[in-house]
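Summary: Need help interpreting a holo structure output

Steps to reproduce:
1. Submit the protein chain below together with the SMILES for flavin-adenine dinucleotide.
2. Request a joint structure prediction with the ligand placed.
3. Inspect the structure token block that comes back.

Expected: a single structure record containing both the chain and the bound molecule.
Actual: see attached output.

Input attached:
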Amino acid sequence: MADFSLELNEDQQQIQKWVHDFADTSIRPVAHEWDEREEFPWPVVEEAARIGLYSVDFMANALFDPTGLTLPVALEEMFWGDAGIGLAIFGSALAAAGISGNGTQEQIMEWVPQCYGTADEVKLGAFCVSEPDAGSDVSSLRTRAVYDEANDEWVINGTKAWITNGGIADVHVVVAAVDPELKGRGQASFIVPPGTKGLAQGQKYRKHGIRASHTAEVVLDDVRVPGRMLLGGKEKLDAKLARAHDARHTGEKQPAMATFEATRPAVGAQALGIARAAYEFALDYAKERQAFGKPIIMNQAIAFKLADMAMEIDAARLLVWRAAWLAKNGGYKHGEGSMSKLKAGETAVWATEQAIQILGGYGYTREYPVERWHRDAKIYTIFEGTSEIQRLVISRAISGLRVE
Ligand SMILES: Cc1cc2nc3c(=O)[nH]c(=O)nc-3n(C[C@H](O)[C@H](O)[C@H](O)COP(=O)(O)OP(=O)(O)OC[C@H]3O[C@@H](n4cnc5c(N)ncnc54)[C@H](O)[C@@H]3O)c2cc1C
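--- attached output ---
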């Protein structure tokens, strides 16, 4: 067990500064351009790979930190730079987390590095759970994986929706129903290796925000993968299915849910980065901008908004850090992971809107970044569990009841 402390250790301070410098010099200056182009920012991700920020080593180092704080600290800085580009850099981590959370040691060693590639040859990973008719309700997946015993292969069919890096990734981690009768407990995760026949990108979504991050459908048409691509292995799956059939309530988490639960403070930290960017910008602006012969911050109406922004951002950070620490030290007791994501996501939407208000007409134009930050922030009440779903998780955790 590591002690909970608000004081970052030397390593964490160095990482914080290193990521901040990269965000300041290599992400911020090009953020507007990639938002307008609405394309995957390959040159920035390649640069991040060259300095080691986009790498399996960096992720492993952050994930093995016993305090849990290294990852949220790094992500806050990265997303302070820009959330769309931040997600382009961080998106592969969801696939890596899906593999680490469900795979055997050999599968982790073989496939997590392939989600990143090398500094010379950057690769991407995608984690494919959501479907057109199964977003919040992940137990209703229609994508089906059927075992072909004669060939020791799994045959996967279905359509995945809203997939970050979908279709452009090298490694797709796909969650599919193997025993639909069992709903969430009858699901398993598979690795679809690069170049597998039958996997194709469907429509690429044109989005409100985080436009530098690629989001697309993934179509799986008779995709055949070797038996060893089943994460965790067949024996473990058979045992799990048998247990689920015997007693339909084993309490075991579904693979997709387990991944999302563990990554919630990391998602909260991303939202925090956007909120802080907007707050800092609005604070500087309010000190500069003159109206009625004085800086607008001299009006309480503006100063109090900034005071509230500072307070809400700090409150969100405390929840994110607590959840990140608990995830490594004893686990969540009453929905702390969901609380952190919910608070940070809603704070980001609120704080970026306050920033637009403080900038007035300028805040509403694309000449200033605050409207982009507002668009970017909105995704944090939607993906990785909507705000309503987070409230559902918290309600169930605090009440012990299956609140609907
Ligand atoms: C940009 C982007 C990137 C994404 N990346 C990925 C990815 O990489 N991998 C992946 O698998 N998915 C990804 N997603 C999908 C994302 O996780 C889903 O969009 C999200 O879970 C919501 O699902 P939905 O869109 O189907 O909405 P729905 O589930 O249809 O929800 C619609 C509304 O109903 C509410 N609602 C639903 N059920 C309840 C309930 N029981 N109680 C109260 N309210 C409820 C929701 O909160 C929401 O407000 C991404 C989505 C976006 C937009």
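--- end attachment ---

Reviewer comment: The beta strands are 125-128, 144-148, 153-164, 171-177, 187-192, 199-204, 215-226, 290-291, 294-295. The two ends are 35 Å apart (CA to CA).
Status: needs-info
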